[in-house]
Amino acid sequence: MRRIISAVLTVMLLALPGITSLRAQEAGFTIPDGWVVSPQNDKARGEPGYRIRHPNTGLELVYVPPGSFMMGSTKAEVQYAIEQFGADAGRLAAEQPAHEVQLSAYWIGRTEVTVGQWRQVMGEMPPPDDQGNDWNKLGEEHPVLWITWREAVQFCEKLGLRLPTEAEWEYAARGPERYIFPWGNEWDEQKCCNGHNQGVGFRTFPVGSFPEGASWCGALDMAGNLWEWCADWYDGEYYSKSPRLNPQGPAEEDLTGPWKLKVARGGSYGSDGPHNFRTSYRVIGMPDARRFGYGFRCAR
Fold first, then answer.
1. Helix or strand or coil: residue 173?
2. What's the CATH number of domain 30-69+101-295, 3.40.630.30, 1.10.1040.10, 3.30.530.20, 3.90.1580.10?
3. Under 8 Å CB-to-CB from 31, ≥6 apart: which residues?
4. Is the Cα torsion angle 182, 187, 189, 195 positive or negative in sign?
5. Is the pTM here over 0.85, yes or no?
6. What is the residue extent of each domain of the chain?
7. Which residues 6+ apart lie within 8 Å of 156 measured at CB?
8. Which pLDDT tens digit goes with each residue over 121-155?
């Protein structure tokens, strides 16, 4: 009789919405080998924003549960960006059409990779520019910049990580609510490092300096500080043919034209105009080129 009662109670508990949701969050949830729970973690297992830490470098990842969202922008949203934020219609064409994307669970960097983390993993810093300027002299906690897409990939691989796909980056930035900016739908230049709110030397801030600008999953600086390299090759028409499940971007061999480019997201310390910091905005760069305002965060 006790077994029967226990079984009935178990079924009843699992039928409760909160319990079902918790079990769904924990389903398939695992902490990668070699990583530990962050001492600052305040989330339950399987919740968005659950923090883990790489013990050697201090690099932190936050958990993004499986989910779906409408990626890109509708015609109405593009028009709103043009009217409210001064965006250029031609530059926003690549955000269309809005399309549904479904993602498996993944981890993404809580912040951009720092100068100190880069130095520890790679051993040496990016070289000065042609005028002898060192773009990474502001401090160990500032985001590393002046690195190529291929160098960012090499850093990730040394830690068993990778760059986020465009879809993963956008979902981590805007969430299922599809916020215009990581923190919501209203522009606030005080919630990120931008052209009107720069750090020391009119450059970056140390990573994580804008906690009020955090995204729904606890990722910081997804607007401002640096443009962030994504894994995907760029195709301005990819959204019209993107697969629904875990899109990886176009294949390199399918690209046409004289240049093969990679995508970056998020806006930088030198970006003016709110449209640059919209969670759906896309910019591009050559994978072997060094860019002043480009950095990255890792994913797994």
1. helix
2. 3.90.1580.10
3. 37, 52
4. positive
5. yes
6. 30-69+101-295
7. 162, 163, 296, 298, 299
8. 999 999 999 898 899 999 999 999 999 999 999 99
